[in-house]
Amino acid sequence: MAKLLKKQLFCHLFATSFGPIAILWSVFGAKPGILRVLLSNPGCSSKKILRTSFPECISNSSPEINLISEQISEFLSGEDVVFSLDIARVDLCPAFQRRVLLSEFGIPRGYVSTYRRIARYLDNPKGARAVGTALANNPFPILIPCHRAIRTDGTLGGFQGGIEMKKKLLQMEGTMLDKNGRVTTERVFY
Question: Is 146 one of the annotated active-site residues of the chain?
Answer without folding.
Answer: yes
